[in-house]
Amino acid sequence: MKPLIPVSLIIPTAGRYERLTQTLRSVLAQDVQIREVLIIDGAAEAPKPDAMLAIAMLAWPVGVRVVTETASVCGAGAQRNQAAALSSQPFLWFLDDDVDLEPGCLSALWQAMMEDAMLGGCNALISNQQYAQPGRGLRRLLAWVGCPASGSLAGRCCGPAVNFLPASIPPDEKGRVEWLNTTCTLYRRSALPDPTFLAFFHGYSLMEDLALSLEVGKRWRLRSVPEARIYHDSVPAPYKSKVISRQAMEVANRWYVARRIMYRKALPLCVQMLIMQMIGLLALLRNPERWSSFPGWAIGTGVGLWRIVRHGTEWSGYDP
């Protein structure tokens, strides 16, 4: 019998039952098992009871509590908060509904937690989405926005909340990083703020994981565990095709994180944000396949900047 560890698995979904089932099967294949599974469904249409029942009836070990609920408020952050309020275990494991865990992933995360009592959270390496060292020209531009001019940027968060993925070979020998994503991340409950995810981050909740981990990192250590690996099967979703709304969210959320979480000063941050938009524009223009998205990108950038000018950091969410 596989050992049970005191972990609550939290997965927000939106009606993607087949892909979610595949993810859960990879969880069941791990060499250790969690005590609790909490799935919050934010499907636009009425949830399919048969599909959710099938998920609950998977071959969970005896003693594992499985809870499936409809979202009270739709959105990745809100759904994770809903699940966290239902959880009963001292460790919370945030997992996306479109990942496949490689063997030994969960046990590697758990071992990292057990080895360091001051480790607030740790995450798995995404095998198909890893850190790539910026080229010389981009590195100069990043230095203008406050990022280090030399050394690896893997796992760093610098300038106007610019965050970089961890590397398969961490630059820090202990794998310490400055931020964690929520694709596959294990947190110590005692390290988490209340609420876990800010209500400011709505819908797709872009950068809600950055805000959370930066807050946790003020008092606890954070670590990337390269021995824990997942494959992120980033499946199509409505928000990915909405260039304007997604770009507007990215601009405004980046400002919010930089001001409210990282305590960046407004005037230097304005300059850095403008440089960041130039970097984004250059990246878009260098790829002819993305030229068609330029109008939406430009409009979305304008909308995001307008929200910043209108609201500053004093608002708790966005206008629809």
Which secondary structure elements does this structure contain, and how are they paired or packed?
Blueprint: E1 4-13, H1 17-28, E2 33-41, H2 49-56, E3 65-70, H3 76-86, E4 91-95, E5 99-101, H4 105-115, E6 119-126, H5 136-144, E7 157-158, E8 162-163, E9 184-188, H6 208-216, E10 221-232, H7 238-241, H8 243-261, H9 266-285, H10 294-311
Parallel strand pairs: 1-2, 1-4, 2-3, 6-10
Antiparallel strand pairs: 4-9, 5-10, 6-9, 7-8
Features of this protein?
Spore Coat Polysaccharide Biosynthesis Protein SpsA, Chain A, 19% strand, 320 residues, globular, alpha/beta, 2 domains, eight-stranded mixed sheet, 10 helices, disordered C terminus, two-stranded antiparallel sheet
Description:
The protein is an alpha/beta fold and 320 residues long. It has two domains: 4-130 and 165-232, Spore Coat Polysaccharide Biosynthesis Protein SpsA, Chain A; 241-311. It is 38% helix and 19% strand. The protein has helices spanning 17-28, 49-56, 76-86, 105-115, 136-144, 208-216, 238-241, 243-261, 266-285, 294-311; strands at residues 4-13, 33-41, 65-70, 91-95, 99-101, 119-126, 157-158, 162-163, 184-188, 221-232. Strands 3-2-1-4-9-6-10-5 form an eight-stranded mixed beta sheet. β1, α1 and β2 form a beta-alpha-beta unit. α5 runs antiparallel to α9 and α8 (243-261) packs parallel to α10 (294-311). Mean pLDDT is 89; it is low at 315-320.
